[in-house]
Amino acid sequence: MTTTPTAVRTTAVAARATDLSKTYGTGETRVVALDRVSVDFRQAEFTAIMGPSGSGKSTLMHCVAGLDTFSSGSVRIGDTELGALKDKHLTRLRRDKIGFIFQAFNLLPTLTALENITLPMDIAGRKPDRQWLDTVIDMVGLSGRLSHRPSQLSGGQQQRVAVARALASRPDIVFGDEPTGNLDSRSGAEVLGFLRNSVRELGQTVVMVTHDPVAAAYADRVVFLADGRIVDELRDPTADAVLDRMKRFDAKGRTS
Amino acid sequence: MFRTALRNVLAHKARLLMTVLAVLLGVAFVSGTLVFTNTISDAFQKSSAKGFDHVDVAIRPEYRESEGDRLAEQPKLTRELLEKAAGVPGAASAVGVVDGFTALAGKDGGPAVDGFQSRGGNYWGEEDPRYPLARGRAPKGAGEVAIDAETAKRTGYGIGDTVRLSVDGPVLEPTVTGIFTTDDGNVAAGGSLTLFDTATAQKLFHKEGAYDEIDVRAASGTSQSALRASLDEVVPEDVGSTVTGRQLADEQAEAIASSMEGMRTGLLVFAGIALFVGTFIIANTFTMLVAQRTKELALMRAVGASRRQVTRSVLVEALVVGAVAAVAGLAAGIGIGAGMRSLMGSFAATLPDGPLVVTPGTVVAALAVGVLVTVLAVWLPGRRAAKIPPVAAMSSVHAAATTRSLVLRNTLGALLSAAGTAVVLYATTLDGTSGQAPMGLGAVLLVIGVFVLTPLLSRPLVAAAAPVLRVFGVAGGLARRNSVRNPRRTAATASALMIGLTLITGMTVLAGSLQRSIDKMATAALKADYVVSMANYNTLSPEVAEKLGETEGVTAVSPLRNAPARIDGATEYLTGVDGAAIGELTDLAVEDGAFEVGGARVVVDDATAEDHGWRAGSRFTVAYEDGAKQRLTVAGVYEGNEMIRGIMLDTAVLAPHQSDPSDMQVMVKTAGGASAAAEDRLEKALGNNPGILVQDKKDVSEGIAQMFTLMLNMLYGLLAMAVIVAVLGVVNTLAMSVFERSQEIGMLRAIGLDRRGVKRMVRLESLVISLFGGVLGVGLGVFFGWAAGQLVGGGMATYELVLPWGRMAVFLLLAAVVGVLAALWPARRAARLDMLAAIKAE
Hints:
Distance between the termini of chain A: 18 Å
CATH superfamily of chain A: P-loop containing nucleotide triphosphate hydrolases
Largest sheet of chain B: 10 strands, mixed
Radius of gyration of chain A: 18 Å
Number of strands of chain A: 10
Number of helices of chain A: 9
Shape of chain A: globular
CATH architecture of chain A: 3-Layer(aba) Sandwich
Strand content of chain B: 15-25%
Radius of gyration of chain B: 34 Å
Structural class of chain A: alpha/beta
Low-confidence stretches of chain A: 1-10
Number of domains of chain B: 4
Largest interface: A-B, 27 and 23 residues
Strand order of the largest sheet of chain A: 6-7-8-3-9-10
Mean pLDDT of chain A: 85
Number of strands of chain B: 23
Helix content of chain B: 55-70%
Order of helices and strands of chain A: EEEHEEHEHHHHEHEHEEH
Distance between the termini of chain B: 28 Å
Strand content of chain A: 15-25%
Number of domains of chain A: 1
Low-confidence stretches of chain B: 396-402
Shape of chain B: globular
Oligomer: heterodimer
């Protein structure tokens, strides 16, 4: 098993989970969703989190992104320890440091595409950086549709708006929860391409939960989760390699 | 199907709660009104029926019409007639009844009860069957009275005490010789009754030698009708008519029933308004429920339910909700009925005791109203539910609320509004009575038109609020967009509030304008410092004006003396004034000639002058009540008002022709104007009289204002119900909106909107909807207030529109408070929403 020691890399860490555990319920009904997970997400790296249903991959992402609370361990975004934060500060942290892309687009139907993109900055009361905004909008190819409402856009276009929204405020880290789950393969490939470009060209850090090996292949690194634990990691993956690993876990899961 | 409907009701308990409450309040209002009025009516009827126990047949005087230029002399029920009546076969005894106004002072010198409730009468002989003596003996002569036991208890007066009282001005100080009990309705309602011996009462009430009524008792074995028949033979037809005690009781019962009918109708109108507002909420709730259940209903269609079955299942749901609400409302209404009686008993009026009356009619009406209102309100949403195509069950997209075009709706709304406005404007050109029906019709059309148009109106009006909302940052912007997101829903919610505020504003504008005009009428043309009148606006003895004239510091005094006379074959009322003083006491605009009263020269108000075709210099003949005739000359025509009008002539000319002169009021001017000292001197001159009001202009204005304030407060209280129901509507709409948008709210929380921001967003949306309703309501209310004022005030010279800016600001503030309050719970829910569950939910 290739558990590469992360300390060797010189690049700074954008987010880090240490001994992160999350359990639901007590006594006999106790369910362990995350079991002492330690993982680093380095800056300017595209990480995919994979695993079968119920492996805890979404829970891991939610905890690291400050959307969910955890039972023990520690999560740091940059220099900030999340476990100590109250809801108010956690909200501010999400607003200023984190970008989100959800599976179900999650745009506000009352706002135009542009207004949706600048929403996090409007909430913060900040003026968007015009130049950066243009760069992001150009990259996702939405220049011509900024005044459209979500209902006038296709699913792929809507998700491109969501990508632009996540990137527009230059967050420290962008989290994607199955961002291509509701898209056809062509639109999905486009969105994944944008995410990869944002890492390569703009130096963005991206963490994405997915169950699609093809999607995972766009990442620099794939972390595999099973039963709430990190069981494997793969660098510069291909879809086939990811699929292979997945099959192995499935087989192991069935025999154990 | 019924089971599905029942399950749905149970599944949406929380969301149906507001609907149930809205129906419940309306039904409670209806049943409370019915229980209360039935109970009061029943109690009054029982207590007044007892009052006729001692009358078997009553003789009442006939009224004679005047003819030609001679005033008819009214017939008198004399002692002679009474004795004749007492002597007919079958008669046991007869009592002569005399009554009038008698103000009794309490021990503190002030009036013992309110002016309109202090009555006086006669005690018949040694032992009056009407008034059993509890203590003491019958009053005899001018120096003795008997008072009722309730009043004795309240004031603390006992046998042998000297009391102060006044009938028409002069203060009397008789001794209490008797305390009696009575079934008299006025006493039961908290009034006082003071009895003199019959001769004294006749003298004091200016009814010398006459009775107001003769009550005859039948000897045992003689029926009421038999006695009546024998009485009819001795009572001349043109003097009096007879009526049996039973008929009197029936008449009284009918009078009570009809006065209660008025009150009941009034209250039911307000209950109807609350229910009408409630229908908006019911329809809104079911529209939202149907929209949310699109998939489920489509599934039912897909597995074979017919359209009719779908509609029926929704209607059955409404039926269950309506029935539950109606039963609860009926229970609440019975409680309200009981509560209102004890509330009214605890202050204001004392009501006779009696059991709480809940008739089957009340129960049926309450249940029918609750169920019908609910089912009718759900008719449209139910039909819409049936139109959901079965394929909607398969579609993965969450079907949003219908976005049908508003073109048809807007056209219809515009047409209705235009028609309503036109009819109202047309009605303002008509006079008071003939304009009422078109005004009402126009108002209803306009309100419906505006309601139909509210979705259209919501956009520009909400957009107008944008600059203010921008201050609240992104929460404000989102709130603004959310509030116009579903214009129909916003419209229905805002309309519910609009109706209440339209009525409240309209009433306020009209009442304020009328108050100003009546106030002006009463004071503008008045130069006098004081107006002296009886507490119940009965007539005053001329002695009062004389006494005031002799008071130190008084520079001018004039009575306003009423005297009937015949002119050109019709009865006219002359106003006798002091010709020398009247010019200093009034400031009436003179349209023609000169304001000059003295001798045969009189002044006439514009309306009377027009009726008779008189101008300055015209001459006419008047026939006084004693039959004497005189040629009078019109010296001038003045602009009359509600207080001072008619033909004014000098009392010196009038006095010789009057047998029993009395004044409506006396106007007084004092050196140095109105002051506490001057008022004190006047009151002292009148012997600190408990029955007389000495009012300066300010008192008159305040009296008028008080009357209007009381009336408005009652209306506000009644309309508050409609506003409360509207608040439930706003709560409901917001709760539904939060529920429907939970995914969005979760996303907003995820990308960094804090709880406060979410709360603020919901609260601002509520504020926008409420203020939208408020602005529409106040606007419409002002229009209706203006229009109704044109109709009612058209005949008043002093009428002018008064816009109560302060009040209107308060109403808008009220709408804002409604918005904030209504948002409390939905905003909390929104802020507490589980972010992850919301994001994941699809």
